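Bump. Still looking for Tetratricopeptide repeat protein structure tokens.
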Amino acid sequence: MSGALAAAVTARAQAASGDLDGARRALDDARNLAERLDGAEAADTWFGYPEQKHHVHLSQAYTLLGDTGSAYQAQEDALALTDSPSVMVRALLAVDTAACLHVDGDPSGAAEMASGVWERLPATYREGLIRSRAETLHRQLTGRPYALLGEALAS
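Sorry for the wait, here they are.
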């Protein structure tokens, strides 16, 4: 379990720092290790690494790599694993989707999606990872999309 989680976190960190080859190797490791988890190792507990969490990590890593096809697939896979994903899971995946829209050449769609997600979030969820990812997207935008997401983040 810890190896799969460590590989997924490493992939995200390497993608964020621009080490694309290292991130892809770590993604391969994360996928290979996660495929071998079972029972308590894959349980949705403090000590497990459930499949949904794995796909959320993959979504972020692929998003940071600019591999939107793989990111969208990871987002779909994560959402398909439960009838009612948590507020945090839905928000993280939606901000990743918004970042993918930006990479795919739709900054207005990206800003609209991220702003909508942000505005629907309860205040208690507007810090930490969600804020960090939304602010990262905000810094990448320009013009009206930048202003739109900035207004949402200021609310």
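The chain has a mean pLDDT of 92.

Edit: fixed formatting.
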